[in-house]
Design goal:
mainly beta, about 15% helix, about 40% strand, two-stranded antiparallel ribbon, 3 helices
Length: about 220
Amino acid sequence: MKQLVYFLLFIFLTSCGTTSKKNLNSGEALLKWVDNLTGDFSFKDSWSYPEGVYRNEFGQLSCDGLCPPEIYNMIDENGKIYEDSLASFYQLLDTTHLFHSIKSDAWTYEWADTDYVIVEKINKDTTVCFTLNNAATHSSLNLVITENIVKPTIVLIGIDSNDITYPCKSGQMVIDKKLWNKGILKAAFDFDFGFDENHNEQMYWKGNIYAKIENK
């Protein structure tokens, strides 16, 4: 009798898991909630300056790239900021410490890592996330999160052509429920985006997120 009970319980649990996967629509992945998500989230304590801000050979924070045009009159021919222009220079240049919110690994087009993800709750049932691109990375991981489902896509930002979207083929995301209720997305994810025949590579994106949830 006991063996029969165990057998029926096994069938029930197996059928529940199978039903959940069968209920997924194309491009969706399973979402799991846990009370205490473990893993390496130490990246959240690391930070960087905004893109283009660097420390020059004179020990000054300077800018290279998309800079306020006014600052170029405050720099000499060697790249040193004039002493009497420092206060004005730093009123124009954003030197905020930007704390990292994602650590991930991926194979996709025009991707060279990213440190930041934006998380926005757009209504009581739906939250969206997207990673920020930079000078070297033009592919963004986009997530639409609902109660038990996440819909991941990779969006390649076209420079000379239209954007290209790659839907998820399979995968899973795990979220810390306790921190979610406090307005923080702490999550681990592993998504497969299918086989890319042009490069003979499997497209994927996996990693960890620790970011504040903004209310849109």
